[in-house]
């Protein structure tokens, strides 16, 4: 996959205690949302998935782009 294709899709991942959704190459040149991982299930997989999905939803709403696509980055549980 090319870098150009990745810029049209949102990367979902985990960074520390937050899930994130990143549209673009990096934080400086792209758009990003973070959502803190709530400890409803021992901070496990379900909590991480929920946080990254919530960040993605918030990013779509903020950018008013409801048809954005996503992929699982290396830091996401499904991208490892």
Describe this protein's structure:
There is one protein chain. The chain is an alpha+beta fold. The protein has one domain (3-72). The protein contains two helices and four strands, in the order H-E-E-E-H-E. Strand 2 (18-23) and strand 3 form a beta hairpin. It is globular, with a radius of gyration of 12 Å. The model has no long low-confidence stretch (mean pLDDT 90).
Helix % is 25-40%
* Alpha-beta classification: alpha+beta
The H/E string reads: HEEEHE
Pick out the low-confidence regions: none
Major β-sheet, in short? 4 strands, mixed
* Spatial shape: globular
Strand content: 25-35%
What is the terminal separation in angstroms? Answer: 17 Å
Radius of gyration from the alpha-carbon trace, in angstroms: 12 Å
Mean pLDDT: 90
Domain count? 1
Topology, number of strands: 4
In order across it, which strands form the biggest sheet?
3-2-1-4
SS summary, helix count: 2
List the helices and strands and how they pair.
Layout: H1 3-6, E1 9-15, E2 18-23, E3 31-36, H2 45-63, E4 69-72
Parallel strand pairs: 1-4
Antiparallel strand pairs: 1-2, 2-3
What labels would you give this structure?
alpha+beta, globular, 4 strands, four-stranded mixed β-sheet, 80 residues
Quick description:
The chain has helices at residues 3-6, 45-63, and strands at residues 9-15, 18-23, 31-36, 69-72.
């Amino acid at each position: 996959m090319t870098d150009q294709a990745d810029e049209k899709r949102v990367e979902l991942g985990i960074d520390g205690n937050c899930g994130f959704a990143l549209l673009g190459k990096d934080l400086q040149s792209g758009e990003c949302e973070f959502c803190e991982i709530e400890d409803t299930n021992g901070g496990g997989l379900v909590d991480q998935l929920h946080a990254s999905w919530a960040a993605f939803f918030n990013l779509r709403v903020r950018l008013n782009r409801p048809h954005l696509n996503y992929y699982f980055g290396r830091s996401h549980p499904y991208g490892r």
